[in-house]
Amino acid sequence: MRIVYIGVVEFSHICLEEIIKNKGEVVGVLTKKRSKYNSDFCDLTPISEKNNIDIKYFDNINDNENIEWIKAKKPDIIFCFGLSQLIKDEILNIAPMGVIGCHDTMLPQNRGRHPIIWALALGLKETGQTFFVMNKDADTGLILSQRSLKIEDNDNAKTLYNKINQLACEQIRDFLPKLINKTYDLIEQDKKLANSWRKRTRKDGIIDWRMSTEAILNLIKALTKPYPGAEFEYNGQFITIWEATKYECDKCYNNIEPGKVVKVIGDCPIVKCYDSLIKLVEYEPRITLKEGEYL
Predict the structure, then answer these.
(1) In this structure, are residues 113 and 200 in contact, taking their beta carbons and an 8 Å threshold?
(2) CATH number of residue 256's parent domain
(3) Same domain, 139 and 152
(4) Where in 33-153 does DSSP place strands (E)?
(5) How many Å apart are CA 34 and CA 66, to the nearest integer?
(6) What is the pTM (predicted TM-score) of this model?
(7) 119 touches 204 (CB < 8 A)
(8) pLDDT digits (tens, 9 = 90+) for 126-156
C-alpha cells in the first residue's frame, strides 16, 4: 500500500514515525520548511531523509505542482495528519483509498478549530481522537478509527497533547494493517450530534479577572506551551501566564474587587478573581507586582 504523507507539526512527526515503524510504505512526504502559523511546527526533513523518502515542500497544499507531484507517486492512500488547511477535490480524488485525516475529538461532536484548546478552556472531562476519510467539508467524513480519552483535572495543553499523540500511535498500530489487508470498516457520522468550534483569536486568550477562578485556570491550562499562552494587560503591556494554581485561604475576600493583588508570596502574586484567588506561578515578562495593585 503506497502512502503519501502530509503534515507540518509535532503530531505529524510522531504519526509518521509510527507508520514507518509499522512497515507502512511511505513513498512521499509533503511538508513545510517553516510555519509562522503553527507554534508546534516540526520539520519532517530529518525523518524523511533518514528513511530515504522523497520530500516536497509547499506553501499551499492545493497548488498544481503539489497535485502533480502526488499523482506521480501513484499513492493507494494519502495520510494528512496535522494540517489545518482544507484539501481540495483535486487531491482528495487522487488515491483509490482516499485521504485519511484526523481530529482530536469524538466526531461528529466538536468539529472545527483548536480542539485541544477548546476542550480544556471549556472544562470538558473527555475528548478523543478520530481518524476519518476526508471530503470537501471539514471533519465530516466516514470514521476509520475512534477512541475516547479522559481529561484529568491536572491536564494542560502539553499533557493532553502528549496523551493524544500516544493514543494516535495506538490507533495507527491497529488500523494500518487493516488498511493494508483491506479488512477495515468505515462508520458514517451522525449529523444530528454534530457541532463545530470556531476559530480562536488572540482576544480569546485575554484574561478578564471578573471571570470565575475555574474559567481563568482552564484558559491558562488550555493555552500553555506549546501554544501562545493566556494573557492579561498591565500598564500597557501584555503579560503571558504559563502556569497558575488556585490559592486556598482561610480569609474571606468576598468584598475585594476582581483583579486586585491581595498579597505576594515570594515573587508569586495572589490575585482576586470573581469568586476566589489564584496564584500566578510562571509568567513572562517577570514583572514585579505589589500587594494592592490592580491588574
Answers:
(1) yes
(2) 3.10.25.10
(3) yes
(4) 55-57, 77-80, 99-103, 111-112, 126-133, 143-150
(5) 17
(6) 0.93
(7) no
(8) 999 999 999 999 999 999 999 999 999 999 9
